[in-house]
Amino acid sequence: MAGRHLVGPGAAGSPIGAPEISPPDLTSINQPPFGPSHWLGTDSQGLDVGVALLLGARTLVLVSVPATLVALLLGAAMGSAAGFLGNSGGRLPRRAAVAGGLALLGFAALAPYWTLAAAALVPATAVWWLLGRTRWGRQAWGFPIDAAVLGLATLLESVPLLILVLVAVAVQRPSLGGLVALLGLSCWTGPARLVRAATLQTVAQPYLEAARAAGIPGWQLLRRHIWPNTRHVLLVRLPLTVALLVGLETTLSFLGVGLPPDVGSWGRLLAAVRLAPTDWWLVAWPGTALVGTILSLQNIINRRIH
Fold first, then answer.
1. Predicted confidence band at 127 (pLDDT cuts at 50, 70, 90)?
2. Rounded CA gap, 97 and 128, in Å?
3. In order of start, what are the domains of the chain with their CATH numbers?
4. Angle at Cα 213 formed by Cα 210 and Cα 216, nearest 5°?
5. pLDDT band at 306 (very low <50, low <70, confident <90, very high)
6. Which of 173, 246, 186, 252 is nearest to 15 (CA)?
7. How far apart are CA 22 and CA 49, in angstroms?
8. pLDDT tens figures, 270-303
């Protein structure tokens, strides 16, 4: 039964450091699923569902929270740049454009091998350093940052998020860090649009136009005026992003393309019921936990909005 992957000896070597749990006693397989030491029941292998729920909750925290931070920070950076610089204020150094394009080509070529993808940064960094020693490389091109950010966000949003992530993980099953990076890079478009709108509203204020006319550097305007006025947008978006990533991680585990099988997950616990349709507790407890988590986050969103 698929339930043997929920908790087991292999969890000790999992990427999230699941505690070592001794294998179940084979004599307990034919025992009733509920008992004094198994309040939430066991599967056909005698593994405790309550322990699997705890491990799945820890997996959700270790995946959704860092991925949310990645999505919000990247969205804040992209939205601030698009709203503050617009289409006329962006200047892209030639060496950065060439090195960035080389890095993207390297990432695309090494996409099937997550551990080797970082090697693409080595030649890109060397090209960036060499071009920095030339006059041509130090010059800059005008770059429509606002149009580029909106175009990239529209392109990513035109593909359903689940399909986009499934295509990425179908190449090779990612590790914990790879899954966090993948989910974060897939969910930055919503925060970026909100931060861009808040930045445009702040930039239009007369005091900011006067500060620009006075020659105050742009980074000081961002630090003192733009970012303090856009933080509330990210705070409102925070619980919604966490809820989105919780559902996405659970769906990937349910489909069997998420984290390795030795990592506990609510989605894998839900998938185990397909091989044991009569074991209702395998879907009742993780389903209740998932619905309760999503509703709690939704309640936080409603309170912040109203």
1. confident
2. 9
3. 36-86+174-305 (1.10.3720.10)
4. 90
5. low
6. 173
7. 15
8. 877 776 667 777 778 888 888 888 888 777 767 7
127-157 burial, b at 16+ Cβ within 10 Å, e below that, comes to bbeebeeeeebeeeeebbbbebbbeebeebe
Pull the structure tokens for residue 276.
């044991």
Concatenate the DSSP letters of all residues of the chain into one string.
-GGGGTSSGGGGGSTT-PPP-PPPPGGGTTS-S-BTTBTT-B-TT--BHHHHHHHHHHHHHHHHHHHHHHHHHHHHHHHHHHHHHTTTS-EEEHHHHHHHHHHHHHHHHTTT-GGGGGGGHHHHHHHHHHHTTSHHHH-EEE--HHHHHHHHHHHHHTS-HHHHHHHHHHHS---HHHHHHHHHHHS-HHHHHHHHHHHHHHHTSHHHHHHHHTT--HHHHIIIIIHHHHHHHHHHHHHHHHHHHHHHHHHHHHHT-SS-TTS--HHHHHHGGGS-TT-THHHHHHHHHHHHHHHHHHHHHHHHH-
Give first-to-last CA distance, the chain, whole Å: 47
